[in-house]
Amino acid sequence: MSEEKENIQFELTKxxxxxxxxxxxxxxxxxxxKLLNEFHYADIAEILxxxxxxxxxxxxxxxxSETTSEILMExxxxxxxxxxxxLSAQEIAEEVxxxxxxxxxxxxxxxxxxxxxxxxxxxxxxxxxxxxxxxxTYDEDTAxxxxxxxxxxxxxxxxxxxxxxxxxxxxxxxxxxxxxYVVNKEEKLIGRLSLKDLIVAKSDQKISDLVKVNVDYVxxxxxxxxxxxxxxxxxxxxxxxxxxxxxxxxxxxxxxIVDVLKEEAExxxxxxxxxxxxxxxxxxxxxxxxxxxxxxxxxxxGGLGAASIIEYFNEAMGSFIVLLSFVPLIQATAGNVGxxxxxxxxxxxxNDSVDGNIIKRLFKEFFLGIVNGCAIAIIALLITHxxxxxxxxxxxxIGIALISVIIMAALIGTFxxxxxxxxxxxxxxxTGPFITTSNDVFxxxxxxxxAKLILGF
Amino acid sequence: MSEEKENIQFELTKxxxxxxxxxxxxxxxxxxxKLLNEFHYADIAEILxxxxxxxxxxxxxxxxSETTSEILMExxxxxxxxxxxxLSAQEIAEEVxxxxxxxxxxxxxxxxxxxxxxxxxxxxxxxxxxxxxxxxTYDEDTAxxxxxxxxxxxxxxxxxxxxxxxxxxxxxxxxxxxxxYVVNKEEKLIGRLSLKDLIVAKSDQKISDLVKVNVDYVxxxxxxxxxxxxxxxxxxxxxxxxxxxxxxxxxxxxxxIVDVLKEEAExxxxxxxxxxxxxxxxxxxxxxxxxxxxxxxxxxxGGLGAASIIEYFNEAMGSFIVLLSFVPLIQATAGNVGxxxxxxxxxxxxNDSVDGNIIKRLFKEFFLGIVNGCAIAIIALLITHxxxxxxxxxxxxIGIALISVIIMAALIGTFxxxxxxxxxxxxxxxTGPFITTSNDVFxxxxxxxxAKLILGF
Lengths: 457, 457
Known about the structure:
2 copies of one chain form a homodimer.
Chain A: H1 2-8, H2 14-25, H3 29-37, H4 41-50, H5 53-62, H6 65-74, H7 77-85, H8 89-98, H9 101-110, H10 113-121, H11 126-135, H12 143-146, E1 152-155, H13 160-171, E2 180-183, E3 189-193, H14 195-200, H15 207-210, E4 218-219, H16 224-233, E5 238-242, E6 248-253, H17 254-272, H18 285-317, H19 327-350, H20 358-386, H21 392-422, H22 433-455
Parallel strand pairs in A: 1-2, 4-5
Antiparallel strand pairs in A: 2-3, 5-6
Helix pairs in contact in A: 4-6, 6-8, 8-9, 8-10, 9-11, 16-17, 18-22, 19-21, 19-22, 20-21, 21-22
Family (chains A, B): Belongs to the SLC41A transporter family.
Keywords (chains A, B): CBS domain, Cell membrane, Magnesium, Membrane, Metal-binding, Transmembrane, Transmembrane helix, Transport
Function (chains A, B): Acts as a magnesium transporter.
């Protein structure tokens, strides 16, 4: 296995990074260029992420802009920002010239506003410049923010032979030809063709006879996540983008969608773990603190809330002070159940497999809570009585409290995400610490109320 | 926005499901066929998932196998199993006949073993049959398990014109032509071409002059997740699969990879939420219990462990019984910090952005713990003293305990995933309840030890 792995996985070794550093220090441009040219630009970006800024700049200035423009796209965002700061507007414009319009617009949008226009003004290719300027007007979370202007377009009135001739020209600019989009003379999208269809067809056939009119498309203002869902669901590799008048504006390819899906999954994962989105292990302590502290504060408020509940019951408890020992058990159980329930609902909502029928789902969680609750309660009852030697009545109290708390936590964990989703709020915020904290507090309150009822203190 | 959304998102309404049910009950085949033919097969699958088995079977028998085979692939796994049970071996063979080899092999592998051979024997197309039989020999988590046999292959000795002629034949069977793979006379992969290259080339050029030899490929035994990472990283839309002798066996397309990436993200998310993988909101209560109860039991063991720690210190505590009120605060904080730290590391490991330097990362978490710990401790100190009126010395104890617990939780949350990863165990199992529970117990132990030290009980 380990031998085969080398085939497919580039491995970033310390030795490789050191070798690059030494070549930089020795100003050995020839060897360095030779070494780096063996690697894919995504791999070179990984190497640059390990170098210091000065070394990274050395490499960027050494390689040709066709390669460095792609490397730039693959760098860590923080590192890219630093590199761009160290490039002149003219140099950035040269990089941008090499990129597809969607990547070019992304790079420019990351620049400080005062530099953006300066860079745009220096782009020599007038068509490229106009297209990038157009793309910059769309919100980055929309179809317009994802699309590229590069596409292959034919008119319905053309013949296959004429089409092939003209496509040869357009296709040179388009890295990958997924589909050929067919428009009418008003530039409105009327259908699509695959290159394969064209090759298989007879050369005097009319495009209007071949075109598949049942084409999926998205509006330029559609939400990026919705576009991703549609492309994943229908297994599309590219989708055309139109404006409100059905005019063909651009196309979105699957590789951009893979990024959207990955980011979305990471965001939900981090929210569930109590981290405000968009941090990485390598971020600065300040940035990590900003992402983590808010949820810790919420947890603290919950912990202090629990403390006041305990304080309140503490005095009245008298000989049942042993109940306090089982607060962590109640709290851990409530927290775990809450996170489980909410995670399942959040994931279901993300996949559109959970519909809005709250009542049905709450009933299910209720029964699930009874099943899990009884299992946990019986085991806890036996262990507390026989291992901790608590009196039967106290063990029974703990058992009943566990069942009630599990049911309550399951219901809260299910209800809140569905409720937030109905209000148009991302239900993922209701996972993790949010649900744990509220369940901690309600769980402990419920525990003491049940104890008071049964034990009568 | 809502108007535009209709363009791209199929909406599964109660009315639509009811309409389908009514047409089935009325045996109105013509209207039903007309209604369903308006939808994409992925949408029809969503409708079928809402029907009962009898109704779903009615629809499957009604539509032609070209459509139903694709619908089958999109059904919920549980529902597909039920539908397949109700189809004869002959009927399944007819569905399989319509599918690409990778999907066909997936369907057959889901059948009970005794039915598999029966279905295979009934496949009429001998080439299709042989290819499916080959695919069934590979492990589903490998490149072989993902690949399809459908691809466009040319020999290096051919000319462009000859190539185009032969491709017309092959391409009819291949839904999407991403790349044309070039082999030598021993069938060994030597490079690739795009359809675009072919169209742009002159018709008397030799393939060996056009071929791009620097082609990415994977070995048939490579791990599926590794393949997914490579394709995502290098933005590949298809990758050829070879055996140990470099013989071209098949190709993997990006849509299969999108599914692998989604499943991977869901698995990690569920582990972090304390759910053993592979459940959905719509699964049965039994299945959901099986997925959720194990983690709850682990949480219970932790809670009982915490109880014995409290019992142990309880008697000695005397007048400092107020310390018990702040156990939930300590526990919640330890749990939250642990989940945050582990989630960041797990995600970093998944993205290959965290390397194995444990010491460096632990130092970082240590400082992060001090920063977060001091912030939380100071606030808690002020609130406990001024709101809860605890004596200064107790508030200070709580503050110091919080700092220590936060640092400890951060270190445990960072260390365990990296440790597991080094041992070849999926670090994602160390998120969620696992980390919460261990941090709960250690946190409470540390709290009382610090209290004992400061307050001297």
